[in-house]
TrEMBL record:
This is tRNA nucleotidyl transferase. GO terms for biological process: RNA repair; tRNA processing. GO terms for molecular function: ATP binding; metal ion binding; nucleotidyltransferase activity; RNA binding. Residues 149-210 form the tRNA nucleotidyltransferase/poly(A) polymerase RNA and SrmB- binding domain. Its cofactor is Mg(2+). Residues 4-120 form the Poly A polymerase head domain. PANTHER family: MULTIFUNCTIONAL CCA PROTEIN. SUPFAM superfamilies: Nucleotidyltransferase (SSF81301), Poly A polymerase C-terminal region-like (SSF81891). It comes from SAR86 cluster bacterium. Belongs to the tRNA nucleotidyltransferase/poly(A) polymerase family. Keywords: ATP-binding, Magnesium, Metal-binding, Nucleotide-binding, Nucleotidyltransferase, RNA repair, RNA-binding, Transferase, tRNA processing. InterPro entries: NT_sf, PolA_pol_head_dom, PolyA_RNA-bd, tRNA_CCA-adding_enzyme. Pfam families: PolyA_pol, PolyA_pol_RNAbd. CDD domains: NT_ClassII-CCAase.
Length: 338
């Protein structure tokens, strides 16, 4: 049994960054031997194990063969005859196809270090085109601080074009597309993810509403809401966006409607929908948005006035009159300000 550190963690170390986690490949072993050594099996499609102490993932070296459509359309082969180079060859980019042994020696059969120096995303092998997810992984990598200024190798662009032409992007699961999007939003240069989607014509079918880019905010949810704003809240309706994202997105939509509204009674209805008491903390985050800068003093004043309203008095009001009385409370507090 030989163990090698592989993938993104080796890449990050070579770039001078501390990796968040590490992945490992085990050569010349078997599932039985891994279990005998205390590793916990977790893989469904291929043998992946958790280390008994560090909980890091250890996978048996494997090769793969395309057998269907989408990123799941592969058959995997593993046994003690699969070499480290075999395993590295199946990976997406050369910069992710580098390994390190237990003595710190770098194994780089596909010249990934050279591509790191040249700041290039280059495919490891022609099999790149078999997995449509790889083009979205590239877009996600562009959001990383250490990789945002890397460019796609001209030879790899050909494979991008083939993947787009194959229409296999539609065969990706909506959950996996959202996962890649969310990871991009969690990184510093999220705008580069969406720029790559546009530049390399990856919009169909998951990003058909994407026309413009704006990723203001220090939270993934805020960036997502800003992307919705700049695209008229028509972006990625088919993706399984979590409620925490939808809540901020919907709040920003109402705020934009509030700014555009000129009718006082309609403004009061919008503020009631906005539920300032429940969403006050979210609304205060909106101060980060450049798009709201000229309106912020007005908005902040309105939100703070709403927070002074004592809605507890509604407890003693007849149920049939609560809605009307609530509107009166809003009006009394805000009539001079809206």
């Amino acid at each position: 049994m030989k163990i090698f550190q592989v993938g993104g963690s080796v890449r990050d170390e070579l770039l001078g960054a501390e990796p968040k986690d590490r992945d490992w490949v085990v050569v010349n072993s078997s599932p039985e031997e891994m279990i005998e050594n205390g590793f916990k099996p977790i893989g469904k499609d291929f043998p992946v194990f958790l280390h008994p102490e560090t909980n890091e993932e250890y996978a048996l070296a494997r090769t793969e063969r395309k057998s269907g459509v989408g990123y799941k359309g592969f058959e995997f082969y593993f046994d003690s005859s699969v070499t480290l180079e075999d395993d590295l060859k199946r990976r997406d980019f050369t910069i992710n196809s580098i390994a390190k042994d237990e003595n710190g020696n770098i194994i780089d059969p596909f010249e990934g270090r050279l591509d790191l120096q040249n700041k290039k995303f280059k495919h490891t092998s022609p099999a790149f085109e078999e997995d449509p997810l790889r083009v979205l992984r590239f877009a996600r990598f562009k959001a990383y601080e250490r990789l945002h200024d890397f460019n796609l190798h001209e030879e790899t662009e050909v494979y991008f074009e083939k993947i787009v032409a194959s229409s296999e992007l539609k065969d990706l699961s909506r959950e996996r597309v959202w996962m890649e999007t969310k990871k991009a939003l969690e990184n510093k240069f999220s705008n580069e993810f969406f720029k790559a989607v546009l530049d390399y014509h990856l919009t169909d079918p998951w990003f058909v509403g994407l026309k413009s880019i704006s990723c203001d905010g220090n939270l993934p949810e805020l960036k997502w809401a800003d992307m919705q704003r700049i695209n008229n809240f028509q972006l990625c309706a088919s993706l399984p966006t979590p409620n925490s994202f939808l809540r901020i997105q919907e709040s920003l939509n109402l705020v934009m409607d509030l700014i555009a509204c000129e009718n006082k009674s309609e403004k009061l209805k919008l503020l009631e929908k906005l539920n300032v008491h429940r969403n006050y903390e979210i609304l205060m985050h909106f101060k980060q948005y450049d798009s709201l800068e000229e309106h912020w003093s007005y908005l902040e004043k309105i939100f703070k006035l709403v927070m002074t309203i004592d809605f507890s008095v509604l407890a003693s009001v007849d149920a049939s009159k609560v809605s009307h009385q609530k509107q009166l409370l809003y009006y009394e507090a805000l009539q001079e300000s809206i």
